[in-house]
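Researcher: Let's continue the batch. This sequence belongs to Glycolipid-binding domain-containing protein, and it's 211 residues. Same format as the previous ones, please.
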Amino acid sequence: MVFAPLPSTAAWRHELARDGFEVAYFQADGSRSRFIGCTTAVEEGATAVVTYDIIVDADWATRRAKVALQSESGARRVLLESEGHGHWRIDGEPAPWLDGCLDVDLESSAMTNTLPVHRMRLDVGERADAPAVYVRMFDLSVERLEQGYRRIADADADAETDADAGSREPRSTRAGERYDYRSPAFDFECVLVFDESGLVLDYPEIAVRVA
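Model: Same format as before. Here are the structure tokens for Glycolipid-binding domain-containing protein:
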């Protein structure tokens, strides 16, 4: 499948899990793409500002992610680097527990769900595991996160339910590609809706696209 070109910018309102807002900017640089963004958030009374600068290669494997945090406890930064085949370094040190991960997933970002969808390019009915390098929002700790995506029938403007999805339904009824998403570690599953560029429109209980 082929996605439309990314817009120059997009934004999401975070809700339920936390209050906040995320803005991202997209740049094409030869065979690589760059994502620069910022999330401001409040969760259980704690505030945080997280900025990111992510580069993916022509196959949409993440090659570098610079993530910075400002919170009440101070400022932190982490640098994640990969050769594109699932081997990682954290601030220059090898991180073998992340072997096999091709994507970065930021707890603070709805945008980063764009990365595996573009990389896998699933057809309707196909599924794939997508373990990710997961960066926590309030301390930038790095974990391995097992995830799975299954592409289900695309949404249309009138569709509101899908009995085959087996998950909570998205609130948005805008047309778009839909994926049955599962994260066993969080005992979480939902239906993600993406636009023609592969950007999340609706991430139930997490975020909704506003621009």
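Researcher: Any comment?
Model: The two ends are 24 Å apart (CA to CA).
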